[in-house]
Amino acid sequence: xxxxxxHVIFDVDDGSRNIDESLRMIAEAKNVGIGTVIATPHFLDHxxxxxxxxxxxxxxxxxxNDTGVEIKLGYEVxxxxxxxxxxGIVKQYTMNKTEYVLVEFPFNTSFELSCKVLAQIQQNGxxxxxxxxxxxxxxxxxxxxxxxxxxxxxxxx
Length: 157
Description:
Elements: E1 2-6, H1 19-31, E2 36-39, E3 42-43, H2 50-63, E4 70-73, E5 76-78, E6 100-104, H3 111-123, E7 127-130, H4 137-141, H5 144-151, E8 155-156
Parallel strand pairs: 1-2, 2-4, 3-5, 5-6, 6-7, 7-8
């Protein structure tokens, strides 16, 4: 089993606070049958610190080497209206360098505007996976929009 959405890299965003917590998360993943964890720190310019992310990922990989759980790098890309000016950069933040990209709808942007950003991401040959759709207020109120996302080629986590 693969966990495609995990904030297991410590001290970079709203996930694990330290290496010990990260290792506990990995141990729990193994206990429930997960063999691969894709670490997905948030990508939004003011949130992601690439140097710290890579440094802490390296430390995590060294400590988790013998856990039996493979750790891959992905990102959780927060959809932002500025991406309408160009979403090519998103290709750098896919899940383990595949065509899949985990995306998060922001709370302060309209659903329609976020869908425009999604469409542009898809035009770049990527397949969006919508993170925690159960938190998207518009989807909660208008369930039919879930079908619209799926019909457009999005996957939902």
